[in-house]
Specification:
Radius of gyration: 22 Å
Distance between the termini: 38 Å
Strand content: 5-15%
Oligomer: single chain
Helix content: 40-55%
Low-confidence stretches: 383-387
Order of helices and strands: EHHEHEHEHEHEHEEHEEHEEEEHHEH
Number of helices: 12
Bound molecules: pyridoxal-5'-phosphate
CATH class of the largest domain: Alpha Beta
Largest sheet: 7 strands, mixed
Number of domains: 2
Shape: globular
Strand order of the largest sheet: 2-8-7-6-5-3-4
Mean pLDDT: 95
CATH topology of the largest domain: Aspartate Aminotransferase, domain 2
Number of strands: 15
């Protein structure tokens, strides 16, 4: 089976599994004073340094969460509620129209709690429209949230530019780096970010662990979402999952080492997939083709083809995703493609691919052949009746 769904989750690296292994059995709570507790605490602190190094932060600016969803909630809800508690008059939160659901759903909640919420539009190439963002920014703006890279079309967003605009108006800036960190160089200091969210399972680490970066000089510390034993400086209490955190750290260190090499291979394979499809006369268009994108990320439109049908037909040979979310039997069009002015009809023909560092040339050739065959059979099966 060929796995090309790395935007959803990346395979666990063998080196990461190896680093985690001893921590499953040699158990100790990092808060306990004995040897096992100290070993757990040392593993966690090493991971904090490894993750901080990956994004140019200080280790004390990294706090562990269950993933990027929680990190996004913690920053956006937590900063809004902290500002309200401090009596700040700023009441508006801006995010891009193509954020992950874990930002958009938080914005809905904030709107219900009386905050003002606005979405900045994106260009047809899937990049936030900075002049439009500048227009939305005002003296009432508390926070801007702009993702590092998009999880459907792979576009790398101009977060440094957004940070400058936000700060010029006295607003704070958060970036959901779940898809960017570990895949392209990120320096939170050079980008001037106040907050960031990370997820281990998008960079060949384990599921169920992530982190927030809270800059030591951020004007507002988020208010916690849960209350308990004071871990993670009281911002995110609860016993830390040592094996997962150790794995997250190992994955960050590995990504730091092999990022350039890996992205070159991914880009070569992505080009190969397009060449193979063209060679098989498959009609395909690449979305966001001229925008800066993650290496190995492809959003492909197959005009007239139902992408869901392709994903289903190939489910046991090639793991792919569509860009649309299916909920309660209804196919909802992707908010990302919609924001890029792609029609609902065209959006239904889009396959989302992320070629991981473990994919080979044989994988890509096999996938191209399978996609081509599936499209041929779908088109024949659904084409006009000859009778
Ligand atoms: N943000 C982005 C951009 C993502 O792609 C994802 C993953 O689906 C998330 C947040 C959520 O991450 P997690 O699965 O760690 O909660």
């Amino acid at each position: 089976i060929v796995y090309l769904d790395g935007h959803a989750t990346t395979p666990l690296a063998a080196e990461v599994a190896e680093a985690m292994a001893p921590y499953w059995t040699a158990t100790g709570n990092a808060q306990s004073p004995h040897t096992r507790g100290q070993q757990a605490a040392a593993g966690i602190e090493l991971a904090r340094v490894q993750i901080a190094n990956l994004i140019g932060a200080e280790s004390q600016e990294i706090l562990f969460t269950s993933g990027a969803t929680e990190a996004n909630n913690l920053v956006v809800l937590g900063v809004a509620e902290a500002a309200r508690k401090m009596g700040l008059r700023r009441n508006k939160i801006i995010a891009s129209a193509i954020e992950h659901r874990s930002i958009l759903a938080v914005l809905e909640e904030l709107a219900a709690r009386g905050f003002r919420v606005q979405l900045a539009p994106v260009t047809p190439q899937g990049l936030v429209d900075l002049p439009a963002l500048e227009q939305l920014l005002d003296e009432d703006t508390l926070l801007v949230s702009l993702m590092g890279a998009n999880n459907e079309v792979g576009t790398i967003q101009p977060i440094g530019g957004a940070a400058q605009l936000a700060h010029a108006k006295g607003a704070l800036i958060h970036s959901d780096l779940a898809q960017l960190a570990g895949k392209a160089p990120v320096d939170v200091v050079a980008l001037d970010l106040d907050y960031a969210s990370l997820s281990a399972h998008k960079l060949y680490g384990p599921m169920g662990v992530g982190a927030v970066f809270v800059s030591g000089i951020a004007a507002i510390k988020p208010r916690p979402l849960v209350f308990g034993g004071g871990q993670e400086r009281g911002l995110r209490p609860g016993t830390l999952p040592t094996p997962l955190i150790v794995g997250f750290g190992a994955a960050a260190a590995l990504a730091d080492q092999d990022m350039m090499h890996v992205s070159q291979i991914q880009e070569r394979l992505a080009r190969e997939l397009l060449t193979e499809l063209a060679g098989r006369q498959v009609k395909v268009l690449q979305n966001a083709a001229s925008a800066p994108r993650l290496s190995g990320s492809l959003s492909l439109s197959f005009p007239g083809v139902d992408a869901d049908e392709i994903v289903n037909r190939l489910s046991s040979t090639v793991c792919l995703s569509t860009s649309s979310a299916c909920s309660a039997g209804q196919i909802a069009s992707s908010h990302v493609l919609k924001a890029m002015h792609i029609s609902d009809k065209d959006a239904r023909s889009v396959l989302r691919i992320y070629i991981s560092k473990y994919n080979t040339l044989e994988d890509i050739r096999f996938a191209a052949a399978q996609i081509s065959t599936a499209i041929g059979s779908v088109v024949v099966a659904t084409g006009p009746s000859t009778q």
